[in-house]
C-alpha cells in the first residue's frame, strides 16, 4: 500500500546529501502533526511525513505492525527516500521499530518517542475506537457539537482535539479515518509481535520517554537491549505521552543532537 506523504526539502540541491528524515505518527494522528519539526529540518535535508494506513489521507485496510512497516517500505521505495533516519511516535514508533528490524539496511538511525517494543501503549482503553465508531453523527455537525459528542467517550480535551481532526463535519459528517479497521486492529496495535532470537537492529537508536508517561518501564529494558543493542534512553521531564507536542523545543533539541547537530542550520 502506498501511503499519503507530505514532502519538504531544501531549496539548495547541495543539502540533499544528508540522510532524509521520515516521520511516523501515533494512533489517531497524521503526518502533519510533525509539521513544526518538518518545517525546520527541511531547510537542510529532505523530509517526509507519512499518514499511516487508516489515518489521514492514506488508504484503509487491515493493520498490524508487519503490514504497516511494509507500507512504509513500499512508499519509501516509491519516493526513492532511503536509506533514511526514521522518527516514530507511539504506534508510529512501533512501526519504525518493525521496519528497522526487518529492513535494517534502509534505516540509518531510529528515534522512538514514548513507546517500547512490547505490549502496551494506549491508555484510553482498547475499545475506544469501537465506541467512537458506534457514535451517531447527526447531520450538520459543527465542531462545537462534535466536541460535546466526543466528550461522552473521551474526557481529555487534548485527546478530543486529536480525534476532531479525523472527522469531516458539515451536512453529512463522517469519520475520515478507517475507524472500523482501527477498532478491529486494536489488539495488534496495543500488542507487539514475537521477534525471533537473533533479529536485531544495530544502528543508533534513541528512545525518548515523557517524564509523566508510563509507556516505557524498566520491565521493557531487556527487550529494548535485545532488539536494539545500541539504544539510549532519555527522558523529557514534564512531558506526558505526546512528548513532541507537549515539549516541542526540548524534543527538537534532542532530535537535532541525535541526527547530527552539526548538519542542522
Automatic annotation (TrEMBL):
Q: Which UniProt keywords apply?
A: Hydrolase
Q: Has keyword Isomerase?
A: no
Q: Which GO terms describe its molecular function?
A: hydrolase activity
Q: Which domain of life is it from?
A: Bacteria
Q: What are the residue boundaries of the AB hydrolase-1 domain, all occurrences included?
A: 21-253
PANTHER family given for it? PROTEIN ABHD11 (PTHR46118)
Q: State the protein's name.
A: Alpha/beta fold hydrolase
| Originating organism | Acetobacter conturbans
Amino acid at each position: 500500500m502506498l501511503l499519503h506523504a507530505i514532502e519538504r526539502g531544501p531549496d539548495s540541491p547541495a543539502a540533499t546529501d544528508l540522510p532524509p528524515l521520515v516521520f511516523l505518527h501515533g494512533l489517531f494522528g497524521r503526518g502533519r502533526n510533525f509539521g513544526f519539526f518538518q518545517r525546520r529540518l527541511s531547510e537542510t535535508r529532505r523530509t517526509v511525513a507519512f499518514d499511516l494506513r487508516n489515518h489521514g489521507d492514506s488508504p484503509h485496510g487491515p493493520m498490524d505492525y508487519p503490514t504497516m512497516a511494509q507500507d512504509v517500505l513500499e512508499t519509501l521505495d516509491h519516493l526513492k527516500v532511503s536509506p533514511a533516519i526514521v522518527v516514530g511516535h507511539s504506534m508510529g514508533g512501533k512501526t519504525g521499530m518493525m521496519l528497522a528490524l526487518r529492513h535494517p539496511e534502509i534505516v540509518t538511525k531510529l528515534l522512538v518517542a514514548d513507546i517500547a517494543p512490547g505490549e502496551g501503549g494506549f491508555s484510553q482503553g482498547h475499545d475506544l475506537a469501537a465506541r467512537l465508531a458506534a457514535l451517531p453523527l447527526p447531520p450538520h455537525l459543527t465542531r462545537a457539537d462534535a466536541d460535546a459528542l466526543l466528550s461522552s467517550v473521551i474526557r481529555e480535551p487534548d485527546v478530543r482535539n486529536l480525534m476532531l481532526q479525523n472527522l469531516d463535519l458539515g451536512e453529512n459528517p463522517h469519520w475520515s479515518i478507517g475507524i472500523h479497521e482501527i477498532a478491529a486492529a486494536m489488539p495488534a496495535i496495543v500488542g507487539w509481535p514475537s521477534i525471533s532470537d537473533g533479529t536485531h537492529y544495530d544502528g543508533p537508536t534513541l528512545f525518548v520517554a515523557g517524564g509523566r508517561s508510563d509507556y516505557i518501564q524498566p520491565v521493557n529494558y531487556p527487550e529494548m537491549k535485545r532488539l536494539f543493542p545500541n539504544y539510549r534512553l532519555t527522558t523529557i521531564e514534564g512531558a506526558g505521552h505526546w512528548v513532541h507536542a507537549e515539549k516541542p523545543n526540548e524534543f527538537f533539541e534532542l532530535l537535532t543532537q541525535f541526527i547530527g547537530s552539526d548538519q542542522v542550520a
